[in-house]
Amino acid sequence: MKQILIADKILIGKELVKNKAVIINEDKIIDVIDAFESEITHIPAKIFPSGSILMPAFIDTHTHLASYGLSLTKPNLNNFKSKKDVIDYSKEYIKNFERDIYIFLGYDESKWTDENEITKEDLDKISKEKPIIFRRICGHKAVLNSKALEIVKNIQGVDFKTGIALEYLPLNIYEIFKPTIEEIKDGILKAQEIAINLGIKSIIDITNIESFKAYQELKREGKLKLRVGIVLYEKYFEYIKKVGLEYNFGDDNLKFLGIKIFLDGSVGAGTADKLLKTNEELEVILKDCQNHNVQLLAHAIGQNAINQFINIFEKVVKNNYLRHRIEHFEFPYYEDIKRVSRLNIYVSMQPNFVALWGGFDNMYAKKLPLEVLKRCNPYRTIFNENINFAFGSDCMPLDPFLGIKGAVHHFLENERIDLNLSLYLYSTAGAKFLFMEDKIGKIERGYYSDLIVIDEKNLNLIETCF
């Protein structure tokens, strides 16, 4: 059934336009007309209040939705303000719930008002008899108690003296301690509802092969409401090559895109300046991706990893038809920004990081030299260089509105971007990352009517129109 949608403003391209209306029919946009014409069309109209913006639904170009869904079944430590509160809560949780292994997620010591480090000894105070793992919010660091350390004796990156595990264990926690397919599906459905209630319609999920299977089952069962692009971790690359899986294989609701590698760690874990691959290793992977038509997503936060990827990319890739990407790109030098533009490397950035940890008295400032801090997430500079870049959340948290606030109110005033551009980067710009720029992300005739209405002043969702 045809319907006219009328809001105070409409996001068309990069601009917020007044006095326009959108005609939709089922799941497609039929036309964009002058608002006054709606009175003579005889089509039912839905009029949204003053201050409303009609825009393409959010596209989150970097999520871990399946993992996030599983985390909804785990105790979360993110909202606690002290180490003491974290320990007290964990003791109480273990007392009340019986588990084979206790995995607590999301701790963020930068929020704590007391000591800001946690070790094996702290977790042993909670319990020495039951295995306990705390994973930091960044996903790059975990802390284990003595009992949990007995289980992971042969896993790399674990300091058995302090109980601190960097990179491999926290990043692969659901590979090491595997959930069932049904548990994964249940988690995806929970996370999907949260995403939709935030105005998100399309995502790229960086995940494992079990979650890819879960998505396929949900699609067959008619339960998948999001449009999902799948990126698998590097460990599956040999399997991908063996079966001949190539980029953009699938349909408008579920498709395969490529693989993700880690070139460095995170600021919070203190590993953002540490290269995780040699130039030779990266070159082999990138050549393999080119030869097998597989997109490569390279996690690179610090300038060392950013520069490494650009150098190898320039050596290997002549035409970026696979749309290889840098994920995060948080502390680039201006020269590297210019090179990324010239080489047409795609970039996915997470403005919620600025909202959470930016500023001159926050976590980034405490962890980084001032010279590096002044290069933090330079959105305006990147936008001005006409780079193919878009926003995502990394599920930290899954909330486009927090990210938009981070971009609009960036602590570096010269790197702030206006609301209209922030909305564009969280919607229209992301369509190219899914190879769907001719189908989603725009309010144009023939596009899917993946539309939302938001409140401009309060930055929250009024309604989904999909």
CATH topology of the largest domain: TIM Barrel
Number of helices: 18
CATH homologous superfamily name of the largest domain?
Metal-dependent hydrolases
Give the termini separation.
Answer: 13 Å
CATH-defined architecture of the largest domain = Alpha-Beta Barrel
- Measured as a percent range, the helix fraction is 25-40%
Q: Give the overall form.
A: globular
Beta strand %: 15-25%
CATH class of the largest domain: Alpha Beta
What structural class should be given to the helix and strand makeup?
alpha/beta
Number of separate strands:
22
Supply the number of structural domains: 3
Q: Give the mean pLDDT.
A: 96
**Estimated radius of gyration:** 22 Å
Largest sheet: 9 strands, mixed
The low-pLDDT segments are none
Characterization of the model:
This protein is an alpha/beta fold. The chain folds into 3 domains: 1-56 and 442-466, Roll (Urease, subunit C, domain 1), CATH 2.30.40.10; 74-176, Diaminopimelate Epimerase, Chain A, domain 1, CATH 3.10.310.70; 180-440, Metal-dependent hydrolases (TIM Barrel, Alpha-Beta Barrel), CATH 3.20.20. The chain contains 18 helices and 22 strands. The chain has helices at 65-71, 83-96, 120-126, 146-151, 168-171, 173-176, 181-197, 209-220, 237-243, 279-291, 303-316, 334-343, 351-357, 363-367, 370-373, 379-384, 400-408, 419-425; strands at 2-6, 9-12, 15-18, 20-25, 28-34, 45-47, 52-56, 58-63, 102-107, 132-136, 141-144, 164-166, 200-207, 227-233, 249-250, 254-262, 295-300, 325-328, 346-349, 389-391, 451-455, 460-464. The strands form 4 sheets. Strands 8, 13, 14, 15, 16, 17, 18, 19 and 20 form a 9-stranded mixed β-sheet that branches. Strand 17 (295-300), helix 11 (303-316) and strand 18 form a beta-alpha-beta unit. Helix 1 crosses helix 7 (181-197) and helix 2 crosses helix 3 (120-126). The chain is globular and about 75 Å long. The relative contact order is 0.14.
